[in-house]
Here is the input.
Amino acid sequence: MRKYRVAMRNLSAPKRSSASGMAPALAAAPPFWSAERILRGVLSARTAVVLCMVVFGIQLGTLSMAKALSFPALLSAAAVSPLVLAALIDGVVHLLPDPLLFAAAYLAIVALLCGSAEQWLGAVATAAIGLAAGTVMSRCTSLGRGDVKLIAVLALWLRSPLLLVGALSLAVVGAGAFAVALLIAQRATRTTALALGPWLVAAAWGLWLFIGPPDLLTLLAPW
Here is the structure.
């Protein structure tokens, strides 16, 4: 009888599976638009907001100086802020946050909606070239998926295949020169990973300022 009661007690007691025991240990993924997902612990929310305002202020001042203020130009200028944040974060943790890339792509697409069909065709062609180039580079080099997505976003933003190729070339040359300098200074080895995102954003931003809507190259020509 005693054995029977022990058996019944064991049958009635709920069994804990290994999966349920591990469930509390698994942390839930943060929401897509959460500060943790966007900033990755590199910057505080206040610092990120201030930095975005400073970057947009620089863009606004440049457009005003070039007398190129328009709604599409302002949208295109606003896309620089999330790109700069993504570049800074990539330089620290070697990760390009998807929410920042999505925000930049959204602003670039909305700016395109205000343009002509010719601009749309240029942007689509540039995006196709960017994806193809990024895919090839990711298979032949250590280029990550985040860098490929960044190249696609920059393609939509720059709208010109020539500007995209120029940005990629400048980024590769700049990153290569920086890597050589680190090797000479013995601050890195041949296996040290370097983030390409900051170089891509810096090169694209420079080309946008001098050849894009602000057209600083023409503005500085008399000098």
